[in-house]
């Protein structure tokens, strides 16, 4: 066994002498390791910088930092594997055991000649897709390489499992785990599913074989792929159940191809059996009652006939077909038009029922799409996506949103525009945009179309979404304009949507520190109307909290943000819940209540890890490390956490935490660290046009310069802070600045 093992299938993993090593927090550093491991030649520094970094960052500096972290992983005393000079970088992998390399070595004739134990060992190392969760889709060249490697590994693993199953068919117990693995990675492959059914029947597990048959037929049909008959042949040719079943309990034949000689069910029984086939594999009497239109007594009588003839059996509160092909043939015998109408009825019934789990959401989208109504199908993906966001199932929400957008493209007119806006909103909440500038432009274009057609609520949604996208990436002037456009779009609206629009506009203006008088006026109108119409929406307390915080009324702000957090949680708005908690955390830090702040960090971190792969989780980790610095005087973890937060491109969150850290540094006499952190925060605040953070940064830099005796720098920053203090900045920041400004005079007197 090699002393160093590198696993790239699934989550990246480095193992030395049997111990799993802790990986650098930077995703780019981990991506660099994988890229170097699969390239046997030295690669130029310029190529690696272009691959994983972008201007205006310092690509060469970032590359050097990443290489320093990788050396600790791959190098050992007396063995230098990572080799770098001024021009190039390479990784010597001659004594590194790399799982994906071993997988690719088994191909062609080697699959036939290698012994089964070696094949099983290699197959068992496949823990998931190549570099799972490490696509870095903002970087096109690396993303393309990663996807190509992922597909190649998937093909190789599929071929390996197929060969294993074929060679082990005579020992089904040993072949079965490999057949299950084959089906997991190739769920639409009829051959894989047929082999699994063969093995389950050979092991006398007909119930599981039947479930796999029904699931396979359904998945392949939903994907729009043709069925070649392998699954049904696997079932019919292999099963021995008919011969073993006593004649008096054998199910009455139900072959729809021989209607003339058979006792087909009639009347209510036939109708119930058709609905059961549509709802297979696990129809329930309750669902049949809701969708079939028959009363419960008629359904009960029909089910009694079906059970007596051994067509259906009741298990665990549900129903099951005793012969799996029975459901398939019954479903196929329903006329296409009737089938679509039945699917539509099921979809409409599911849409009326609150979703409680992902399988129910999948049922909704399945039946809606099978109904043939594109708008109903797209609307179902909206409902399913929103439910997934509520339970923090972001990957599934992304899947539903992308599927819905593909459906919406086939819909004409304003209905397409409105659905697309709702789906873009879900997509943005589920995953950060790879190309956020194009995404913002696309959303604005949709909002303009909605406005032209008088769809005011959707126009507001589009402008507001574009504002949030641009705010998150530092385009605050553009975000300000989109916010105002959202408010203008709703001036002719009425009721709930107008209230939400005014509150959202007030909230965004407060976040941007722009037009605060207008924000106050809009919020007052929104509150008055909300009280009159008995409407509650988190945008109202969020806006109230931000304005109260700006006015240095911490107690009032805290009450509003707690209310907003509760409303967001109840509505399933996890991003809003995080933002409310985030502001409460900032208030704890401003009060120097770090024990309470640390408790809040635990909640933030738990929520951040469940949210999309954005800046929320890195921010929560950095905030927690900052609390540790405040309480234990250990700045090390905070410095490490900042690296990940920088890579997340969250300028505002970075600026806020840097200011808090600089304030701690100043208190503890670490003047140079104060200067560095306050200067970096000032840089971000200038890009974001945030006057509050600029004031605090200048104030800290002025005090640091005073303590170092640098009169010129002290005067520069003091004058800059004085000018900013006259502008509309947060009252608590002005109070903090005044305390720092008065400190030199107080010390001089002593």
From TrEMBL:
GO MF, one example: DNA binding
Species per Swiss-Prot/TrEMBL record: Billgrantia tianxiuensis
Q: Which residues form the Bacterial transcriptional activator domain?
A: 96-239
Q: Which GO terms describe its biological process?
A: regulation of DNA-templated transcription
Q: Does the keyword Secreted apply?
A: no
Q: Which UniProt keywords apply?
A: Coiled coil
Protein name, please? Answer: Bacterial transcriptional activator domain-containing protein
| Coiled coil (residue ranges) | 509-536
């Amino acid at each position: 066994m090699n002393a160093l093992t590198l696993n790239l299938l699934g989550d990246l993993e480095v193992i030395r002498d049997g111990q799993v090593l802790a990986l650098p927090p930077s995703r780019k550093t981990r991506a660099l390791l994988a890229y170097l491991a699969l390239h046997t030649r030295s690669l130029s520094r310029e190529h690696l910088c272009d691959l994983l970094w972008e201007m205006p960052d310092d690509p060469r500096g970032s590359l050097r930092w990443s290489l320093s972290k990788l050396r600790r992983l791959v190098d050992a005393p007396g063995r230098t594997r990572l080799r770098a000079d001024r021009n190039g970088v390479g990784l010597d992998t001659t004594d590194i055991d790399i799982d994906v390399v071993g997988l690719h070595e088994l191909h062609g004739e080697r699959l036939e000649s290698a012994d089964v134990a070696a094949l099983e060992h290699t197959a068992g190392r496949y823990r998931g897709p190549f570099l799972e969760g490490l696509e870095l889709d903002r970087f096109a060249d690396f993303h393309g390489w990663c996807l190509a490697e992922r597909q190649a590994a998937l093909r190789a693993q599929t071929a390996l499992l197929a060969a294993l199953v074929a060679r082990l068919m005579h020992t089904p117990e040993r072949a079965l785990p490999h057949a299950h693995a084959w089906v997991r990675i190739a769920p639409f492959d009829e051959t894989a599913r047929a082999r699994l059914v063969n093995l389950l029947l050979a092991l006398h597990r007909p119930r599981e074989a039947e479930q796999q048959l029904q699931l396979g037929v359904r998945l392949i049909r939903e994907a729009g792929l043709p069925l070649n008959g392998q699954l049904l042949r696997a079932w019919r040719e292999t099963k021995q159940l008919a011969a073993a079943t006593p004649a008096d309990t054998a199910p009455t034949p139900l072959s729809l191809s021989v209607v003339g000689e058979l006792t087909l069910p009639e009347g209510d029984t036939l109708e119930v059996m058709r609905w059961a086939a549509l709802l297979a594999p696990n129809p329930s009497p309750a669902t049949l009652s809701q969708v079939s239109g028959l009363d419960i007594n008629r359904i009960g009588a029909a089910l009694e006939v079906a059970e007596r003839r051994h067509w259906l059996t009741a298990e665990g509160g549900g129903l099951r077909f005793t012969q799996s092909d029975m459901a398939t043939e019954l479903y196929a015998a329903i006329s296409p038009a009737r089938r679509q109408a039945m699917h539509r009825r099921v979809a409409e019934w599911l849409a009326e029922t609150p979703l409680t789990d992902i399988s129910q959401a999948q049922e909704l989208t399945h039946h809606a799409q099978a109904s043939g109504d594109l708008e109903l199908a797209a609307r179902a993906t909206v409902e399913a996506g929103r439910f997934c966001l509520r339970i923090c199932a972001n990957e599934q929400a992304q899947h539903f949103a992308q599927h819905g957008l593909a459906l919406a493209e086939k819909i004409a007119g304003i209905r397409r525009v409105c659905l697309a806006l709702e789906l873009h909103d879900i997509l943005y909440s589920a995953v950060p945009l790879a190309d956020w500038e194009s995404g913002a432009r696309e959303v604005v274009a949709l909002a303009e179309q909605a406005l032209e057609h008088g769809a005011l609520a959707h126009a507001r949604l589009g402008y507001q979404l574009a504002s949030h996208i641009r705010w998150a990436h530092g385009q605050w002037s553009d975000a300000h304009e989109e916010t105002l456009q959202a408010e203008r779009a709703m001036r002719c609206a009425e009721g709930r949507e107008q209230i939400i629009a005014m509150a959202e506009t007030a909230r965004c203006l407060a976040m941007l520190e722009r037009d605060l008088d207008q924000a106050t006026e809009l919020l007052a109108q929104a509150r008055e109307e909300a009280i009159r119409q008995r409407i509650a929406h988190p945008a109202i307390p969020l806006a109230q909290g931000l304005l109260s915080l700006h006015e240095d009324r911490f107690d009032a702000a805290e009450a509003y943000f707690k209310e907003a957090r509760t409303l967001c949680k109840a509505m399933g708005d996890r991003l809003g819940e995080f933002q409310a908690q985030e502001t409460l955390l900032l208030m704890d830090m401003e009060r120097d209540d770090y024990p309470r702040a640390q408790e809040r960090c635990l909640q933030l971190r738990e929520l951040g890890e469940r949210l999309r792969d954005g800046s929320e989780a890195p921010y929560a980790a950095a905030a927690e490390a900052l609390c540790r610095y405040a309480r234990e005087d250990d700045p090390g973890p905070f410095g490490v956490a900042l690296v990940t937060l920088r890579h997340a491109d969250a300028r505002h969150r970075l600026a806020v935490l840097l200011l808090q850290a600089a304030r701690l540094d100043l208190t503890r006499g670490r003047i140079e660290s104060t200067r560095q952190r306050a200067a970096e925060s000032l840089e971000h605040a200038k890009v974001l046009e945030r006057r509050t953070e600029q004031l605090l940064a200048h104030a800290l830099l002025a005090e640091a310069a005073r303590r170092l005796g640098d009169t010129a720098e002290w005067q520069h920053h003091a004058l800059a802070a004085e000018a900013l203090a006259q502008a509309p900045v947060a009252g608590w920041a002005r109070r903090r600045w005044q305390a720092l400004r008065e400190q030199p005079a107080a010390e001089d007197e002593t």
